Structure to design on (95 residues):
């Protein structure tokens, strides 16, 4: 981040997770090289996905139109069609 008068403020206001390589709380290391010690991130992701799936499955019963999960959360289109024609080139305009 360059020269700064207050490194902690600069990290908090301008930093990203990539800027932090070691975190200590009350003299105890809690994060080193991007890993939070004692935390199983794979298990947290699995549990988070399970909660998300449960919440998504419950949406239709709360939707006033009773739409399905697929209707409420359509997939992102893989290819976007466009009807805009390319601009003519300079040589097209001269001839």
């Amino acid at each position: 981040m360059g020269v700064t008068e207050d490194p902690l403020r600069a990290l908090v206001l301008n930093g990203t997770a990539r800027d932090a390589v070691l975190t200590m709380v009350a003299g105890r290391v809690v994060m080193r090289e991007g890993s939070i010690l004692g935390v199983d991130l794979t298990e947290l992701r699995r549990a988070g996905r399970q909660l998300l799936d449960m919440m998504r499955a419950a949406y239709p019963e709360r939707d006033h139109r009773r739409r399905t999960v697929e209707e409420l959360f359509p997939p992102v289109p893989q290819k976007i069609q466009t009807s805009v024609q390319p601009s003519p080139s300079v040589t097209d305009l001269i001839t």
